[in-house]
UniProtKB/TrEMBL annotation:
Pfam families assigned: FtsA, SHS2_FTSA
Native source organism of the sequence: bioreactor metagenome
Name of the protein in question: Cell division protein FtsA
Coiled-coil region list: none
GO biological process, one term: cell division
UniProt keyword annotations, A-Z: Cell cycle, Cell division, Cell membrane, Membrane
Domain (SHS2) ranges: 1-103
Length: 347
């Protein structure tokens, strides 16, 4: 809660910034740092549901917002990596908010939908409801572990394991054949070893089932599977064939895959990048006020009072050139000048 400071009790940008600053003054564990404060609604003298209170008259201003924190070590390391790359950080955005801005429509964000981002290093599950982030869970397992499992079991390098996963991998072993073989270069053998598709699929399926089961237990704690929006899969690991069908079997609700529609980026691995751009571009003015990034408009000068400076015209010098009727006259004139020059030289 914050008391409006202006004499006429009109809420200004300064009041909004102060109520955001007051919201950040709360007990945060020393090992965590505030990433963002996302406003949900303002309350002016008991009247709630206000999105932008500026210009309203009131005595007491309150803010209902979501405060998102993260481990200081991870946040610090991310910032250092970006700065060492020669870039400057403008702001930090929570990934589920960015992806949901492109992977979900407004109805899915309002009525409730689960977003599962299957990355390389981790798999995250987020719940969007009432156009707000209500729940988030991170499983430290991702597509890289699937590649590592293939590498260990088939005794091949990580590069070969990644290639095999992309070219021959499938998420459901029952839908593959044990009579279809492909070569795999293994350590310690000169000739490639033949591996059947079913065996590879069993390796992939075991890890994916473990990831989905961990997420399912976390979602059931908040009854997220009861939401009408179902699940939206995205991320690089979600591009593996059969992942959507395997997710439907485990979660037992509707599951669909989000693929960006932009030309050259039609792969779920680009969902975060595209979502980040759209989310930041769509931030409203009240968010920028809270960040202290409001641009003040300059004084408008009437057109009649402006003095228009006339452009300076610079005239180029005109060089006179002698013209001759034909080439013979030109040669005679040149010979005559040379004769006069020699006569003057020896006089």
């Amino acid at each position: 809660m914050y008391a409006v400071s202006s004499e006429n009790k009109e809420i200004t940008d300064k009041d909004v910034q102060n109520v955001f600053a007051a919201a950040k003054v709360r007990s945060v564990p020393p090992e965590r740092e505030i990433i963002s404060v996302i406003p949900e609604e303002f309350i002016v003298d008991g009247f709630d549901g206000i999105r932008d209170p500026r210009g309203m008259i009131g005595v007491r201003l309150e803010l209902y917002a979501s405060m998102i924190t993260g481990p200081k070590t991870i946040i610090h390391n991310i910032k250092r990596c970006v700065e060492k790359a020669g870039l400057q950080i403008e702001d930090m955005v929570v990934q589920p908010l960015a992806i949901s801005s492109v992977a979900m429509n407004k109805g899915e964000r309002d009525f409730g939908t689960i977003l599962i981002d299957m990355g390389g290093g981790q798999t995250s599950a987020s719940v969007m409801h009432d156009d707000q982030l209500k729940f988030s869970f991170v499983d430290p397992e991702g597509g890289d572990l699937v590649t590592k499992d293939i590498s260990i079991i088939l005794n091949t390098t990580l590069e070969n394991a990644e290639r095999v996963k992309r070219e021959y991998g499938y998420a459901i072993s029952e839908d593959t054949s044990d009579e279809e073989f492909f070569p795999v270069e293994t350590i310690g053998k000169e000739e490639p070893v033949k591996v059947d598709e079913k065996y590879l699929s069993e390796i992939i399926e075991a890890r994916l089932v473990q990831i989905f089961e961990n997420i399912k237990r976390a979602l059931d704690k908040v009854e997220a599977r009861d939401l009408p929006g179902g699940i939206i899969l995205t991320g690089g690991a979600a591009a593996l064939p059969g992942v959507v069908d395997l997710a439907k079997e485990i979660f037992e609700i509707n599951v669909k895959l989000y693929i960006p529609e932009q030309m050259g980026m039609r792969n779920p691995i680009y969902a975060t990048s595209i979502g980040l751009i759209k989310y930041v571009a769509g931030l409203d003015d009240i968010y920028r006020v809270a960040k202290g990034k409001v641009q003040t408009t300059g004084k408008v000068i009437p057109l009649q009072s402006k003095t228009v400076k006339q452009p300076t015209v610079i005239e180029e010098p005109v060089y006179e050139t002698e013209t001759y009727a034909d080439e013979e006259n030109y040669e005679e004139s040149l010979v005559g000048k040379l004769k006069r020059w020699f006569n003057n030289l020896f006089e």
